[in-house]
Amino acid sequence: MHTVVHAIDGTTQAADLGCTDSAPIASDFLPARRTRVLGTVSTTCTPWTGRAVGVTAVAVAVAVLVGCATAGGTTDPAAAIPAPPVSGMQVVLRAGGHAVGATLADTPAARELAGMLPLTVELTDAWGQAKTGRLPHPVTAEGAARTVQPVPGGIYYWPDTATLAVYYDDIGQSVPPPGLIHLGAVATGMDRITDAGSDVTVRIERSAAAHP
After folding, report:
1. What number of other Cβ atoms are within 10 A of residue 60's Cβ?
2. Does 150 sit behind a cis peptide bond, omega within 30 degrees of 0 on the bond before it?
């Protein structure tokens, strides 16, 4: 049992901290914004360990966004799928006057994304983990391998909301099954993605080397 301090009236109440049956499973978690989630968080999905309040708040919010995913391992089969080796089309992500090199995987989903290029996407960074934004059109998810454990440098796709995600950090949280589709990986300039700010316009285009 642990003690919960209510932020509104300062009272305390003994309670076990954990996900309830009614905890939200957010299929639209990737584009979610900080203000709406923090205003509605009533439970936490990870044990209260006495960490700094700021770190815990982020962990709680991320756990809610990913539908009560935990920082530990999972028995879901998709968790064991590593990011596929990337061998495909070379592209460039341009943001704020910087160019970031990346390679799209040789998969149906990644090839459909390549068919949209050049493409401009508005990316948002809500949790200090990934830049995410919706594509103008969905890409195929049929038969695609998925993972619930995205890795920094990976470019992923969340089919439920046609959302593109460029991960640059690992804060120990997994995403809800069936997971993300791996589209490719950033090869150079990852720090420019990290430092691009919370809202950034990114233009994705084929690199000069990709043209015949």
Report:
1. 20
2. no
Domains of the chain, first to last: 2-65 (no CATH), 80-210 (2.40.100.20)
Whether residue 106 contacts residue 143, with contact meaning beta carbons closer than 8 Å, is answered with no
Q: What is the pLDDT of residues 21-54, one digit of tens each?
A: 433 344 444 544 443 333 333 333 344 343 333 3
pLDDT digits (tens, 9 = 90+) for 155-165: 999 999 999 99
The predicted model scores a pTM of 0.62
The two tokens of residue 142 are 């049929």
The length of the chain, given as a count of residues: 212
Higher pLDDT, 127 or 75: 127
Distances (CA, A) of 35 to 38, 61, 126, 175, 176: 6, 10, 9, 20, 21
**Is 4 exposed, middle or buried, given 0-12, 13-18 or 19+ CB atoms closer than 10 A?**
middle
